[in-house]
Amino acid sequence: MADLNYIAAGRINTTPLDLNGNLEKILKQCAQAVKEGISIIAFPELAISGYNCGDLFWYSELTKSAQHALLNLKYSLPEGIVVGVGLPLTGSDNKTYDAYVLLKKSKIIGISVLHSCYNSCDSRVRFFRTPCVEGLSFNIGSEIFTPANTFEVELNVSSKQTVTKRVGVYFNEGDLSYLDKVELLICPEAKRFELFDDKQRVVEAVALSSTLHCQVVTTNLLGCESGSDIFDGLSIIADDGKLVAQSNYLSFKRADFVTASSGISEFLNEYDTIVRSVALGQFDWMLKTRSHGFALSMSGGADSGLCATCVCYGQLAALDELGYDEYKELLSALKFEVPAFTGDKQSFVKEKIMPQVLTTVYQGSAVSGSVTRTAASKVAHNIGATHYEWSIAKLVEDYVAIINGTTPGDELNWDRDDLTLQNIQARSRAPGIWMIANRYNKLLMSTCNASEDAVGYCTMDGDTAGGLSPIGDVSKSRILKINQHIADDGIEVVKGGLKLDVPDMSYISAQAPTAELKPGQTDERDLMPYVILDRIHVLHQGELYTPQRILDTLVEEYQNFSRDDLKLFVKRYFTRLAVNQWKRERGATTFHIEKTDLNAKSGFIFPLLNDGYRSLLEDLK
Question: DSSP code of 173?
Fold first, then answer.
């Protein structure tokens, strides 16, 4: 195998529109790469502008600023290194293109543009649908460049040897036919994190290096740059069918690079990976909104317990990966008190940091029980959150009294006004926790999950209150398994090493899920078994099955249920899915985690006004 230590995959945690900040991170990594003898470093797609600039990509001021940043990079680079970097550029046809530029000190080597928007649902082409065309050119400063996919590049592959290598740029499969014989292929990416996507991308990178008999370096954006999408920072170096280096996944670093000597990092298991992705999203939200941590209405149930635990995991992972000095610098900028490091990392985070970062409140009602109250308190104290308890019973009584006083002789009762009386309890919890969040400049988290989101099993302006819904794209059946895993084994921060221990999660995992808004209520009694609800969701969103085919599939898979019961579940799911799109469109921002994302902003597009699936359900057999 050839010596690949001259190559690096750079990755940075970008912020959209922060061209100066992104450029500063790129230059810092370039300077460090030169010190380590790196000859070429490839940064991700749209690393200068950030990926999710939305419609601003079509504003000339953004592309002009991006070009200005590119020229600053050109003249600010250290000698002896070639850099690849992505940015939006305006072509000679006045359209905006997703471009990738190779350059070195005082010289732009060439520009590439993707040739095919081969999948319009791919996250990268939600904004870019203009592929490279014949005759296209780009004016950069006083020079004109015609886009290409292969370039002759002089590289210092060792201290005594300079060679010319054929370097290619590959956005997607549409570029293959445009590549000449290459020795090094750069694959810049802006791929959002999606569960179970990691290993497949490694396989594809290795296979590409085998097919083209070349060296391949892939590099992806890192972190939650703009709200919903989390970029995993997965960087890969492969050589002629062999995996040489594989970065860690979902890094908390603000910027770094991966080389052949970095080795192959192991992936965490499914449940630990989900927690890490949510925690990284939360951590970036805290930093980029300059918030003093988080506020959470802690019900003692599975969802709020997981949201709280992810916050603690994020602090522990950040301290471990960034190191104390950088971690302290980031938190001190948000006015957190970060004392001198003593003891082990976990006790330091729980005892010194978490009381400042997370405030939780258990808001009991007349129908709340001691089980959920105890569970909320145990988990909150187990992770070190500042925890309060109060009752909303009097608030609910006062609201009911107001309505009864307004409509004398027509008093509210559970037989007729079940939903009304449930919802007022959920809504009475919102003002108090909002006050905590506003008073202390904290981000209020909503605790909705993907299963409840699908069928609208939530109260608008109640349990949906908040600006961020961290687990809104994680199915409830998976959440229940994650919590059991946390209670039994803890959550790994480092494969085979540091882990977060939350044994008191057992107080939550032992319960049947309940919104606790009326006596004897359980979620699955109101809806259906979560495992079936989530299976319907996957078959519909992931496999694109019709309701009839879904029913037939369920009959085969769940033989302990009658066909009539399963038919009822299918009808209930689709009816509720159809009428609750308005809730999904009003909901707080969720992170994209599972492939079957119902996020109305970046996932499942569905009409607000529709026939309620009646035409597909009326003939269900």
Answer: G
